[in-house]
Amino acid sequence: MCTYDPVHTTDREATFALLKRISVGVAKLFTPHCEVVIHDFSDLECSIIHMEGNISGRKVGGGATDLLLTHARNGDTVRDFHNYQTSLPNGRNMKSCTMFLRDKTGVAYGAFCINLDVSIFAGIHRILGEFLALDAGSEVSETLSDDIQRTIHSILREAVNDMGTELPIMSKDEKIDLIARLDEKGAFQVKRAVPLVAEELGLSRSTIYNYLAEAREKTDTDAQNGA
Known about the structure:
Elements: H1 10-29, E1 34-40, E2 48-52, H2 66-74, E3 81-87, E4 93-102, E5 108-117, H3 119-132, H4 148-163, H5 172-184, H6 193-201, H7 205-224
Antiparallel strand pairs: 1-2, 1-5, 3-4, 4-5
């Protein structure tokens, strides 16, 4: 079994001591889904010198991971790794961060690693996705309200959005087009629709009636002409 007997400089000892304190706070903040691991590269076979939380089943005195071995071997420790996917031997998915500890010359002598078990959240995400899924290509929409004024307002806003414009609509043709869309959506089956729409558009009731008549006449003409 490995025995850990590293030789540190004072700066390294101070850094490791500080990170051990930080690891307690991080692990407790995200318990029970987090573990924090501190590695000392002076002996990669026994590099783990501290752990807080434990979701990977590793222990102090355990060896470096494949990622650490590869980058330590190649000297590729200039950049840290954040928010990347990792996995346990049993296939459980994790997300991790690895921050290398470097001396004054830039050489890495250790690593501070945070691992989060996201498997339970991945399951919740999948379930929520299935629960929130709608029929593909569905164009049906509905506002659930028993207040007819709100319903008319909702229909009006939807029609304005369909036109790709905003209120106030200035031209007469645009207003007639809007009234036609409201009529097509069934708004004017409601007796109060005309005064409500008139108020929303800042028009008189008689103007709304006139525009409605013109819109319906145009619809009938287009239907007769096969438009």
